Amino acid sequence: MTRNLMLVMCLLLGSIYVKAQKTHSMKEVVVLTRFEVKKDQENALHKSLGEYVKQALVNEDNIMAEAYYEEQSPAIMWLIERWTTKQVLEKISNSKIFKQVRTLSEKGLVQPVKTIYLKDLEPLSKEEWRREPGKGDTPITIMLFVDSKAGTENRFKEVYHTAMPQFRSEPGVVNYQLSQLEEDSTQFVTYEKFRNEDAFQYHLNFPPIQPVIDYLNSSIKQQPFQAGLHRLIRFAPLDNGR
Question: Which domains does the chain have, with CATH numbers?
Answer without folding.
Answer: 28-236 (3.30.70.100)
